Amino acid sequence: MPKVTRPDLAAMLVPLGRALTDAERPVLDRHGLTMWGYVVLLGLDEQPVHTQAALAKAIGADKTRIIPVLDDLQHRGLLERESDPADRRVNLVRLTRAGARLRAGAQRDIQEQERRLLADLPAADRDTFLRVLQQLAERTGSARFPG
């Protein structure tokens, strides 16, 4: 039986994911966002209008779970919800300019933090790591948000 030479992927990625999430919390706090609020704003980037159900599916959330998040973001003027003219039972969700600005600022600050984390890696390794990670995320369906 061959000797195992590295930890399993999940054993490496789960602690890294937790550390990254913990590092993002203060950044999101400075921007007045919860993690779910940020995920919703990111989820609205690819298409300007989603139904609430389609948005929930795109971000991997239960549609009832995101309703209070949508309520908060709408109350703050970061998104708009309106009835779909084709089906009044369905709400369409649209990012406002203020929501787009907030999302861009939070994402910029988070990615700056990530750049500092990756800064000690040689440029070729860093580029390869990011490219392969994006490919794996796309292959598994978890690359829902633009980089």
UniProtKB/TrEMBL annotation:
Domain of life where this protein originates: Bacteria
InterPro entries reported in the protein's UniProt record: HTH_MarR-typ (IPR000835), MarR/SlyA-like (IPR039422), WH-like_DNA-bd_sf (IPR036388), WH_DNA-bd_sf (IPR036390)
Residue ranges of coiled coil: none
Domain named HTH marR-type: residues: 6-138
PROSITE patterns, A to Z: HTH_MARR_2
GO biological process, one term: response to stress
GO molecular function, one term: DNA-binding transcription factor activity
Protein name according to UniProt: MarR family transcriptional regulator
Species this chain originates from: Nocardia mangyaensis
Biological classification of the source: Bacteria, Bacillati, Actinomycetota, Actinomycetes, Mycobacteriales
